[in-house]
Design a protein that fits this description.
Strand order of the largest sheet: 4-2-3-1-5-6
Number of helices: 4
Distance between the termini: 85 Å
Radius of gyration: 40 Å
Helix content: 25-40%
Order of helices and strands: EEEHEEEHEHEEEEEEH
Number of strands: 13
Number of domains: 2
Length: 344
């Protein structure tokens, strides 16, 4: 075992044998202590050679004494340091100290968690606004390819149940495709204008579980939902005419969408779905769809800009209540867009 000579300090080395051999020199401020379980040959040899090997040339006053060390578990090696007679040893946390640390961590987590949740929601709102901006660019691209007209149609199929939530051509809708798989509304942009980034038709701030991949897989096969309302033509009729020929489309030119029912210029084209309905409609695939805890609604305007609108009072929420009235539901949806038309 090696040994060290350290002026003005004491060093103790405890081995698995458990008995201490302490060597000291009164003329110099150092002590070297080796611990063993008996007067072993190693301890004797250590004491004998200490004076001869020391660069300090220890005097004959050097003395050696043996002392019993505290019992140690077999095979365990530990150490401590004595500086100017003070022994410094390691010890574990007490239960009270551990509980205090846990309490501090819990308090810090409680303080930081609301800030983290708020930051995450702000990030989702920003991503939602970016999605609507990309939809606005796609609508402008579509208009440039189709004589200045925004996406419109298709002709609504015969209404058979609330599952066909597009009973009249040009009604405001959040659908991407109809029950027969035909693209509708924003779904008309998926083949070309949004073909490279189809998921922008879904808001990342959905309050309910939502599978965007499953909805995209339904396009062309069955009914699919997006995360945004889309306004085209402004039709609120419950059914098309019996002849099957819808009225001539109106409010379709992007540079001149005309006036809404309140005589105000049409400005809002797409916005977050804030839709509440009775649970009884779940059997028809009609379920609540809200975003951003219903606190805001992001709106895409016809000039391409996107703005967040306060929805704390529910002014942008389509709430059908417990009594589902299909005859007025599309009027309520269009009324939400008309509310957005008046907000600067």
């Amino acid at each position: 075992m090696p040994f060290f000579l350290i002026p003005s300090a004491f060093i103790s080395i405890i081995d698995a044998t458990g008995v201490g051999c302490e060597t000291a020199h009164p003329g110099m401020e150092f002590r070297l202590q080796a611990v063993g379980r008996g007067k072993t040959p190693w301890a004797q040899e250590f004491s004998r050679r200490l004076n001869r090997l020391s660069p300090y040339r220890l005097k004959p006053e050097l003395h050696t004494r043996m002392r019993k060390a505290p019992p140690r578990s077999e095979g365990r090696i530990s150490s401590h340091i004595e500086i100017h007679g003070k022994r410094i040893s390691r010890r574990a946390f007490t239960l009270i100290e551990l509980l205090v640390v846990i309490a501090i961590i819990a308090i810090l987590a409680a303080l930081l968690l609301p800030a983290l949740v708020s930051a995450r929601e702000k990030g989702r709102r920003a991503a939602c606004m970016s999605n609507l901006h990309q939809i606005g660019i796609a609508i402008q691209s579509y208009a440039s390819d189709f004589g200045g007209l925004i996406p419109y149609g298709p002709i609504a199929p015969s209404f058979t149940s609330p599952f066909d939530f597009y009973p009249s051509t040009g009604a405001p809708t959040s659908l991407l495709s109809l029950g027969n798989g035909a693209p509708v509304g924003l779904g008309l942009l998926l083949s070309q204008q949004l073909g490279a980034q189809p998921k922008v038709v879904f808001c990342p701030g959905a309050d309910q579980p939502f599978n965007a991949d499953a909805q995209l897989a339904n396009v062309g096969v069955s009914q699919a939902q997006s995360g945004y309302y889309y306004r085209h033509a402004g039709n609120t009729n419950l059914f098309d005419t019996p002849s099957g020929n819808p009225p001539p489309p109106d409010h379709l030119r992007l540079d001149n969408l005309g006036l809404n029912r309140n005589g105000q210029p049409i400005r809002a084209l797409a916005m977050d779905t804030q839709f509440l309905c009775t649970p009884a409609l779940a059997a028809f695939g009609v379920v609540p769809s809200t975003h951003h805890q219903q606190q805001i609604a992001n709106v895409l305007f016809s000039d391409g800009h996107v703005a967040a609108r306060n929805n704390a009072g529910g002014q942008f929420t389509v709430n059908l209540g417990n009594n589902f009235d299909l005859a007025t539901s599309f009027s309520v949806m269009l009324g939400v867009f008309e509310q957005a038309d008046t907000v600067p």
